[in-house]
Amino acid sequence: QVQLVESGGGVVQPGRSLRLSCAASGFTFSAYGMHWVRQAPGKGLEWVAIISHDGSSIYYSDSVKGRITISRDNSKNTLHLQMNSLRAEDTAVYYCAKDIATGSYYLDGWGQGTLVSVSS
Amino acid sequence: DIVMTQSPDSLAVSLGERATINCKPSQSVLYSSNKKNYLAWYQQKPGQPPKLLIYWASTRQSGVPDRFSGSGSGTDFTLTISSLQAEDVAVYFCQQYYSTPLTFGQGTKLEIK
Fold first, then answer.
1. Residues of B near A (CB-CB distance < 8 A)?
2. pLDDT digits (tens, 9 = 90+) for A57-94
3. How far, in Å, CA of B23 to CA of B12, rounded?
4. Which of A44, B13, B20, B81 places its Cα 20 to 30 Å from the Cα of A19?
């Protein structure tokens, strides 16, 4: 079955960078669009970014555009999120999630999440 | 951006009773060419990631109990749990995938009365 395992979270000072990864298994990774969704402590869900199955299409939320880069390595079944110029408001659990690959972006597989805490 | 507004923010229902959660997008999520509503519902239990329950507004994800149902069209949607079970205690989110950015409702916390 679908397995998504995030890593790379931790405590980081404001203005610094962090790179998150998501290891995928149990499905044909290269056939599916992948997303990052975050959830601040005790808050709701906020979509961050999407990358298409082949990496040719990428979209970001306005709140992270210019500071965050989503990428994927289909040869290694891995999704990445490069986060630069981190702010306190970026503190959240970051989930990677897969969509259903038909251009319809509902998310039928989620990882357990990795916590990013931005604090001095 | 499409703003998703859920009501109520929290809900307490007795075991075996019906629970109803509403979701109102700020604009229609009905795509005219295929007559599909681009709306999904998720369940999130404490300490867990969200789980997809419903997509296309009313299609139940495989493995989801049939006490969960979705209805509505355009700008007015409902998630109904026909007979609340203890394991249904969770926060429920709606999400539109009609356009990017994808947006979620603020969540509805469902508890046992």
1. 38, 40, 42, 44, 48-52, 55, 61, 93, 95, 97, 100-107
2. 999 999 999 999 999 999 999 999 999 999 999 999 99
3. 17
4. A44
